[in-house]
Amino acid sequence: MSMYDLEEEELVAEITGRGARRLLIQLPDGLKNEGPRLASLVRQRTGAEVFVSAAPAWGACDLSLDAALRLKADLIVHYGHNEFLREGSNGIPVVYIPAKSRHEIIPVIEKTIPLLQGSRVGLATVVQHIHALPEAKNFLESKGFTVQIPGRGPWAHGGGQVLGCDYFGLKRIEPEVDSFLVIGSYFHALGASLSVGKPTILADPYGGTVRNLDHDRAKVIRQRYAMVEKARQAQSFGIIVSTKPGQSNPTIALSIQRQLEENGKKGVILYADEVLPDKLLDFTDIEAFVDTACPRLALDDPERFSKPIVTRDEIMVVIGAWSWEQLLERGLVRL
Q1: pLDDT (tens digit, 9 = 90+) per residue, 225-241?
Q2: Cα 239 vs. chain centroid, distance in angstroms?
Q3: Most buried of 170, 220, 272, 312 (most Cβ within 10 A)?
C-alpha cells in the first residue's frame, strides 16, 4: 500500500463527473512512480486517455498549462499540492489531490522535545500532514507546551500549512512563540527558518530524524550577504521572468529594470521556463542575475551558478533601497 492517500476513487469520480476524455497527470518527484499505476487505473475505469508528465512539478505554482493545451487535454490532475487555480489561463480545469501522508508523526515529534526552546511552540506542516496537526498539537500540550497553529497565508490555504515560499502565517505568530516546529521536509523547514528569527526545529517523518536549523539559517544568511555584496559590484543584470503560471512576475521585473537604470546600471529581462545555471551561461555580458520567480531558486544551492544571483528582495539591498537589516526583518523567503 502506498504511504500516501492518492484518492483513486475520488479521482475516478471527478473524471467521470466531468466527462473528461483526455487528461494530464502531474506528480512531484517523490510520487512519480505512482504515475503508471494511476494511468492504468484511470484508463480501465473511465476509458479516458492519460498522459503522465515527466517534467518537474515544484508546486501548485508549476502547472503544466502549456503542455495540457498542446495535448488537447480537457483536465489536469495535479498531485501533492493544494489548490492554486481552479482553472488554467487556457481554460483547462485543474483537480488538486494533496496526497495525504500515512506516515506516523508522533514518534518523530517526541524526538524534538529536547530541542524545543521555551514552552510556547508554533506548529506548522506541509499539506500532506495537515490532517495530523490536531494529533500533534494534543501530544505537545500533553508534554506541557502551549501550541500555536498559524493561520493561512496568501497561497497556503489551510491553517498550519507552509509552502516553500509562503511562511506568512509563521511571521504573524512569531511574537507569541519561543520556537517553531515544522513537520515535513528539510526544504520546507529551512524556508521557515529563513523567514523567522526564532529557533526552528524540523521533524522529518519520512526519515524519522529531527534537526535544529539555527546553524543552517546562519550559514545561508552568510551566503546571501556575500552574494548581495558581489552583486553590488555588477553593472549589468539579467532579470529573470518565469513562464510558470504561479511564478511569472513581469510587472515586478519591469519595476526592477527601471530602478536599476535609475541607479546607473543596466538591466535586461530574460524569459525562462526553468531557472537553470546552464541556461544562463550564454549571456556572457551579464554580470549578475535577479530571480523574480520562486525565491528558493536563488537561495538554495547558489554555488550552482557561475555568477551572482539575487532575489527580487535582495536587489533592493543591492541598489540601496533597503538595508540588509530591513531585508532580514522581512525574511529571506517571501513571494
Answers
A1: 999 999 999 999 999 99
A2: 21
A3: 170
